[in-house]
Amino acid sequence: MVGAGRVVSRTLILSQYEVKLFTLATFMRHKDFPCAAAVDAYNSKFVVFTGKDQAPVVKYALEVPFEELVQNAVKENVFDKKVAKMLLDNRRIPNFPIKKFLEASIRRIDDIIQEKLEWKATRQRIEGEFEWLEEIR
């Protein structure tokens, strides 16, 4: 399971921390971003190193609240509200549908990142037009 290379369809998840790491690893693999990661399992911390061009996308992915991914999974019928509450409460979940959760989460993260990138491009375009309009005045 290291590097989200082969995620089994059903497994035991110890806490939402592991699910978060799997989600990030799967996202990086989905985007085919070269990266290196270090994990401190005892303190629930991790560091990800990636290329300069990919850094903004990874930053946006990390900004997506985990709760939003869980709510999206409930909405897409990956699991029910009871399982969602267990996951958010850091309880052990036998037979957690990790593969389906990751697929739904990656789709949601992709959508959010696309919206942010479009908004950023639009804002830059508008700011550039504003400067042009000031020159005319």
Q: Would you give an account of this structure?
A:
The protein is an alpha+beta fold and 137 residues long. It contains five helices and four strands, in the order βαββαααβα. The chain has helices at 16-31, 55-63, 66-75, 81-88, 98-136, and strands at 11-13, 35-40, 45-50, 93-96. It has a two-stranded antiparallel ribbon. Helix 3 (66-75) runs antiparallel to helix 4 (81-88) and helix 3 (66-75) crosses helix 5 (98-136). The longest helix is centred in the last third of the chain and has 39 residues, at 98-136.
Gist?
It contains five helices and four strands, in the order E-H-E-E-H-H-H-E-H. The protein is of the alpha+beta class and 137 residues long. Helix 1 (16-31) crosses helix 5.
Lateral arrangement of strands in the main beta sheet: 1-4
Rg calculated over all Cα atoms: 18 Å
Q: Indicate how many domains the architecture comprises.
A: 1
Report the β-strand fraction as a percent range: 5-15%
Average pLDDT confidence is 82
Shape: elongated
**Helix proportion:** 55-70%
**CA-to-CA gap between the ends?**
61 Å
Report the uncertain regions. none
Helix/strand-derived category reads: alpha+beta
